[in-house]
Amino acid sequence: MSITVNLYYKGVGGNARMFAEEMEGTGVAGRIRAEDGNLKYEYFIPLGDPETVLLIDSWEDQEAIDRHHASPMMKELAALREKYDLHMTVERYISDTKGIPQKDSRFIRQ
Questions:
Q1: Which tens digits make up the pLDDT trace of 45-90?
Q2: Bridge partner residues of 88 (DSSP)
Q3: What is the count of structural domains for the chain?
């Protein structure tokens, strides 16, 4: 079972994008990707809302998330959120271990 968290960072004046660029440019995002249990850590910009950045953050299990939250990088991340005055909304998903049903797979072009 994996856990995926969608974090929507909202700012003004391009701050959300600058935050994501600084996370990537300083290597914080790369260090998070290298943490034990991290499966995905990727930023996206929604086409209809350039003042929001979506982070898709996936982990093997809750224990991996807890280790991440206890890591020193969380202070760096929190400082950058504050620097760019970002506000967040969060969605959390637990993986379906059965995968995509056969009846749905016909809609997926490989």
A1: 999 999 999 999 999 999 999 999 999 989 999 999 999 999 999 9
A2: 9
A3: 1
Q: Is residue 58 part of a domain?
A: yes
Instruction: Judge if pTM exceeds 0.85.
Output: yes
Alpha-carbon distance of 6 to 59, in angstroms, equals 12
What is the extent of the structural domain holding 77?
3-97
Length reported for the chain: 110
Q: How far is CA 52 from the centre of its chain?
A: 13
> What distance in Å separates the CA atoms of residue 81 and residue 11, rounded to the nearest whole number?
10
The CA distance from 55 to 50, in Å, is: 14
Residue 64 resides in a domain: yes
Q: Which CATH number do you get for residue 47?
A: 3.30.70.100
